[in-house]
């Protein structure tokens, strides 16, 4: 059973979300400010967080930044504000999705299912190894650190998610559309070009010779894979 943390200073909203989510079989934990949310995350195996932005004691953005310092659990932000800058601020802080109040319960449930599906496909969950080593590449998914031959390498969030997906499924070929659907969590329109650009950037960072890659291989007509060693 997936465990979901709902955090909002409006108790009626928390109660309503608990009812909707429980009806779908989710176990719901309740918090009313960012500090309470972080306390629950320390003691429970949470698979997704629904987090309000405007709250007392610790607002949603500060709580989100604290969550991202130690976890890649999916976070959906809630806010009564609809301005683009609030959405951008949340996404830049590490949110996976954003829903404006008042919300449609059907939409909330659909977004929760989508984020949980993406999280598990990317290797989320307690039973997955958080340290992956392939040749000279080592990815620490707890600390979000990538090293190549012992040297730290900086990736953008999308580059990280693509590489993480491929490394956790070493040897498996993913088509550009599959990568786009899982990593971007959107309908794969124009996926080939978008994925190809990020693959090129990843190769430039992890390969000694990007033109003759050792790790990140293309399978012509099918997609990309990390070569299992």
The CATH topology assignment of the largest domain is Rossmann fold
CATH superfamily of the largest domain: Response regulator
The CATH class of the largest domain is identified as: Alpha Beta
Instruction: Report the principal-axis shape.
Output: elongated
How many domains comprise the coordinates?
A: 2
**Unreliable segments (pLDDT under 50, ≥5 consecutive)?**
none
Provide the descriptors you would attach to this structure in a database record.
alpha/beta, Rossmann fold, 229 residues, 11 strands, 2 domains, 5-stranded parallel β-sheet, 8 helices
Structure, described:
The protein is of the alpha/beta class and 229 residues long. The protein is built from eight helices and eleven strands. The protein has two domains: 3-121, Rossmann fold (3-Layer(aba) Sandwich); 131-226, Winged helix-like DNA-binding domain superfamily/Winged helix DNA-binding domain (Arc Repressor Mutant, subunit A, Orthogonal Bundle), CATH 1.10.10.10. Helix content is 41%, strand content 21%. The relative contact order is 0.10. The model has no long low-confidence stretch (mean pLDDT 87).
């Amino acid at each position: 059973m997936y465990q979901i943390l709902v955090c909002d200073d409006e108790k009626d909203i928390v109660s309503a979300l608990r009812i909707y989510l429980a009806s779908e079989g989710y176990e719901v934990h309740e918090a009313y400010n960012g500090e309470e949310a972080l306390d629950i995350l320390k003691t429970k195996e949470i698979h997704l967080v629904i987090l309000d932005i405007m709250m007392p004691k610790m607002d949603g953005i500060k709580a989100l930044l604290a969550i991202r310092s130690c976890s890649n659990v999916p976070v959906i932000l809630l806010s009564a504000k609809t301005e683009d800058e609030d959405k951008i601020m949340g996404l830049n802080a590490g949110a996976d999705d954003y829903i404006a109040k008042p919300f449609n319960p059907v939409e909330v449930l659909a977004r929760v299912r989508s984020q949980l599906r993406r999280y598990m496909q990317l290797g989320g969950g307690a039973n997955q190894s958080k340290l992956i080593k392939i040749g000279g590449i080592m990815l620490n998914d707890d600390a979000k650190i990538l090293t190549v031959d012992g040297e730290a390498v900086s990736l953008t969030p999308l580059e990280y998610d693509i590489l993480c997906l491929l490394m956790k499924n070493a040897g498996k070929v993913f088509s550009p559309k599959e990568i786009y659907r899982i990593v971007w969590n959107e309908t794969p329109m124009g996926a080939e070009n978008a994925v190809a650009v990020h693959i090129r950037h990843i190769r430039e960072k992890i390969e000694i010779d990007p033109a003759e890659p050792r790790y990140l291989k293309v399978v012509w007509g099918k997609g990309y894979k990390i070569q299992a060693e």
